[in-house]
Amino acid sequence: MLVKYFNPSINKYFFIFFCFFVAILINNTIPYISLPTLGQALWAMGYAKSISNGGLLNVYALDFGIPQPAAIAFGLSAVLPMGWLIKLGIMPEAAYSLIFSLWLALAFCGAYKFSVLLSKNINIAPFYSLLWLITPIVTKHAAYSMLMLGIALLPFYCWCAFVFIFQENNNRRDYFFAAALFLVAALVSIFMDGYTFVMFAVASSFMLLFAYFKAKGKMSFIYGKMTVFLIVFSLAYFLYSHFIGKSSYHAEPLDFFRGWGVDLSFLIIPSRGVFWFFDYIGWSKQRLFTEYFGDSSVWDTTFSIPFILFGFFGWWKFRNKSLFISCLFVIGVFSLYMALGPSFKFFSTKTDSYVNSLANTMLMPEKYALFPTGNSVLSENLPGFNVMRASYRWMALAIFVFWCLTISFMKEKRNIIQYGSVVLLLILFLPNIPGTWKNGRANYNSVLDINKKLVSELKNDIPKDSSVAFIPWGNDFFANYLAPFSGFRSFNIGGDKNLEAALPHWPSVMVNLQGEINQNKINYLIQLLLNKNVDYVVIPYFNMLWSAHYWVCPSDTLMPLSDETYFSLKYELKLICPYEIKENLKGNVSAIKALPYLNVLDRKLYAVISINSVLFNEYIRKKSNDYPLNVESDNFALNDVLEKGWYYLEAGHVWSKYNAKIKLSVPNESNDLFVFRYSVFYVKGNDPITVEFESIVKGRRVKITKIIKDNEVHTVEIPIDHDLTSQLVDIKVSNAKSPSELNVAPDTRKLGISLESVHLSN
Predict the structure, then answer these.
(1) What is the crossing angle of helices 39-53 and 92-119, to 10°?
(2) Transmembrane residues, as ranges (predicted)?
(3) Highest mean pLDDT pick, 341-345, 524-528, 607-611
């Protein structure tokens, strides 16, 4: 039957609200006052604003990750309503906290329902609900934004599954309502966070299996429950894969799973700075990423020994009385097992021989582990499991289940023991509230500071709807926020999955503009502007990833940083302040300013570069008639010569596409031939490359065909038509392939000819 316990009096409503208010206070989601995080909040607010810019029914970001619409990899369930609030005029930082509070309210309701179900006590249920929402598995994932909501909502998801799976089919209205609620939970889950969607699917599968063994009418259960179960999860997966445009993300190596597996010592000994009580009594340990694999979320979020112990006794107490309790215990044990990752770890740290760098701190080679757990078979081969690279996150489902079993254990005990136990657990899991509050206020005020110092300035310097590239590019969290709120459109995008999706659609020259800026990259930067790929290039004097998390730098931030965090940011991440970055780039920016056909606005936090079309056309007129035409990365006069079908200028050559055109100025009559020096991309063992050169000479079509089976430099002579002022040559390349197609290099460009020069001959 559908469980209906929720009928408290007005005073009890007030107490429920009070417990919920404490929960959102600790989670820093009070609108207009605090913000739970900064970097991910900027990322999400940018998506919300961009989606809302596209209209009520739009679900894609249109202002960053251009030219293609950007599908948010996770978090649409929160970002979509956030965008509606921003559209109504609510400040984005307030909209973020408000939406998070609303989802946390739903999470609180789910926890309340489970608490009432398992304790049979509506008076104590608000305590347990508050306890769930202040556990570090929820609060310490605030920096991961939507993951935090996904974890917090696990009680709601599982409640929906419980109501549908364990409900009798006698009441048709309740059945259809439960099925609809189950579908809503699946859709919210998959569009909120992939990790917790898989956990929800696993928990629901175990519930379905246990309920099947209990069911009296097996066939009725199969048709009424199992069929709907399959339809619900299949539909959710189909809609999500259609939304992101692919069936799945690529799997990570096992070393990643291993590095992010939970160390059993983390379950027993909390990390310093997480709980005030354990810090006070000295039962906490300082942990640094220089010593442990993964990041701080692995060891800050997973302390759970009180729940595991009480939960085990709760299962033992009711193991023969309740099938559902046994089901929960199996889910908890399985989740804990998966959280270990492929290898067992207990006080496992990096040895002196381990090369400690930011590039490999996420990975843990097998030789550093104690022994295998055996779950690598699932992590490597099972769809869904093979992309859950942060293995420790299975602890979210484990902690939720053992939280449930803890409630069950306390049931039937005297009131003083029940209330005393839950109050004790609340004290144990209570964070350092003053420190937490300072972080929330600092996050909120940092957004205000960003709006004042950065967003408003960019609005003034870059016209609305202009296309922009931030150079150098990377995982540019800031682009998500700056583009929609400053009113321009950016190629850059934040989020590794979103960046991976955007890259194939970018101008090919942009691929070369990652990493430190140097003279070669300045040439590529100029080409990006000359080719009309972008209207403006912005060189930021702040870190587009880490400054979004710690605005603006360790030495100039509103964030309260510990000594360890300050040291890590400044000396390990090399997060330096704008004045230092500006000084380091002074020579490069001066070189750009020296070019007469470029406009440069050099501000405190960035430089904006654009083309002066009048001066550039004058430069072209002076340079384009000079022969020989030697291809170099800085010979920008070729921009007027290379017509359609060419990639960017490189050192000594330029690649054509499979079909290209070149417009050559006709010289005086002392020369009769254009001579092209070129090569092709040929890999031994493949079909020959056929190149056709075609031009109109004296009204007659001249076509020259070359069949090439090597990578040597070749020449071809094209007759000159002296009746023309400029002559067009068409180049067609059959069997053009990209290096990635032939497994030679990751370059995805289909390469035609590599043109080195054009000179004249008699």
Answers:
(1) 110
(2) 12-33, 66-86, 98-122, 142-166, 175-191, 222-240, 260-278, 298-316, 322-340, 392-410, 416-433
(3) 607-611
The reply to whether 694 falls in a domain is: yes
Q: Computed over its alpha carbons, how large is the radius of gyration of the chain?
A: 31
Q: What is the mean pLDDT of the chain?
A: 92
- Residues 138 and 297: beta-carbon distance below 8 Å: no
Spatial CB neighbours of 594, under 8 Å, sequence gap ≥ 6? none
Instruction: In the chain, count H helices and then E strands.
Output: 30, 19
- Which residues have C-beta within 8 Å of that of residue 621, sequence separation ≥ 6? none
- To 10 degrees, what angle do helices 125-134 and 10-26 make? 10
**pLDDT digit string (tens) for 227-245?**
999 999 999 999 999 999 8
Q: Give the pLDDT of residue 8.
A: 46
DSSP-derived secondary structure letter, 659: E
Q: What does the pLDDT read at residue 374?
A: 92
- Decide: 512 and 648 in contact? Cβ < 8 Å: yes
Closest CA to 308 of 330, 332, 292: 332
Please report which confidence band the pLDDT of residue 321 belongs to, taking 50, 70 and 90 as the band edges. confident
Give me the phi and psi of 753, to 5 degrees please.
-105, 150
Short-list 486, 378, 418, 461, CA closest to 63: 486
Nearest CA to 549 out of 480, 471, 455 is that of: 480
Rounded to whole angstroms, the Cα distance separating 366 from 295 reads 18
Dihedral class, residue 582 (left if φ above 0, else alpha if ψ from -120 to 50, else beta): alpha
| Residue 687 within any structural domain of the chain | yes
Domain extent, residue 726, equals 627-761
Q: Is the dihedral of CA 472, 475, 477, 479 positive or negative?
A: positive
**What does the block give as tokens for 579?**
């004045």
Among residues 428, 401, 388, the alpha carbon closest in space to that of 262 is found at 388
Query: Checking DSSP bridges between strand 371-372 and strand 489-490, what pairing results, if any?
Result: unpaired
Query: 654 φ, ψ to 5°?
Result: -145, 135
Domain count, the chain: 1
* pLDDT tops 80 at residue 4: no
Domain assignment of residue 670, yes or no: yes
pLDDT at 360 over 80: no
Task: Establish if 535 belongs to a structural domain.
Answer: no
How much of the chain, in percent, has pLDDT values that exceed 70? 97
40 contacts 144 by C-beta, under 8 angstroms: yes
Here the CATH number for the domain that contains residue 757 is: 2.60.120
Residue type, 378: L
Task: Please tell me the distance from the alpha carbon of residue 497 to that of residue 250, in angstroms, as a whole number.
Answer: 10
Picking from 21, 3, 19, the residue whose alpha carbon sits closest to that of residue 423 is: 19
- Segment holding 614, helix H or strand E: helix 613-623
Examine the pLDDT at 31 and tell me if it is beyond 90: yes
